[in-house]
Amino acid sequence: MRRLSGHTKPFAVLGHPVGHSLSPVMHNASIEALGIDAIYLAFDVHPNRLMDVLMAMRDMGFQGTNLTVPLKEIAYSELSQLDESAELVGAVNTVAFTPEGMIGHNTDGFGFLEAMKEAFGPSIRDESVFVLGTGGAGRAVALVSAREQAKRIALSDVDTSRAEKVAEEIRRTQDSIEVEVVAPKDQASVAHDYDVVVQSSPIGMKESDPSLLGPEAFREGQKVFDLIYMYPETPILRTAREAGARIANGLGMLLHQGARSFTIWTGQEPSVKHMREALEKAVYGS
Questions:
Q1: What average pLDDT score do residues 38-56 get?
Q2: Engineering a disulfide at 92: which of 42, 81, 104, 186 sits with its beta carbon 3.0 to 4.6 angstroms away?
Q3: What pLDDT, on the 0 to 100 scale, is given for residue 235?
Q4: Which one from 9, 72, 117, 151 is the annotated catalytic residue?
């Protein structure tokens, strides 16, 4: 068992709620494997208290922290120093405490691209990408897909105005990419024609949630990625698999965005092997 000391370096994830987070599981596995005198914790922080908590963490010697919903956009608007990764997607999921101050980063896009490579192949360049849910991480997926030169992108959200805003951001920065906003009633028919379908809404976080799309939305050869990682196979992934699509859940994205965060904080490479094993044990039970 790892021993803590007066020199133990603290890291954490903040969210509201935060009890579902698997970040402590994977980071502590890596910390132990590397033999580092450190610990990674989880704290439930109300959005109204975020900046006070971050400043207290800075003063207490925390090395870095991750942020999850609903804190990412608040940190983006409140932090005075932002890395280009956070500027791109308009959200912060990683805060580094440095001698120059607190710097906000976003590793969601990096994690998504690495997970897609592992699950499906080397690149999403020239692929058509359908993003279902455009808040937070879904927005990051859409913007990073555009930066990586996806062939065309479709966006759909119960809040159509939110999807329209993301579409406009893409058009401003990547005017060569075809972008369409899809009404909820047309999701299934449009999704069927896309190479990649990314589910980034909260639907599926409960085991009793229905699949957002029926079998008519999927086909053989399609790649379907659900950002939700708490279950091996969410309802939408099960539906897609049964229709012949290749599937992957969000565990790989969680793994690689977390690994990138650790490198930002420490300048070291984490033990991705031990992080993956810990996550798989927590989710798959083996």
A1: 97
A2: 104
A3: 94
A4: 72
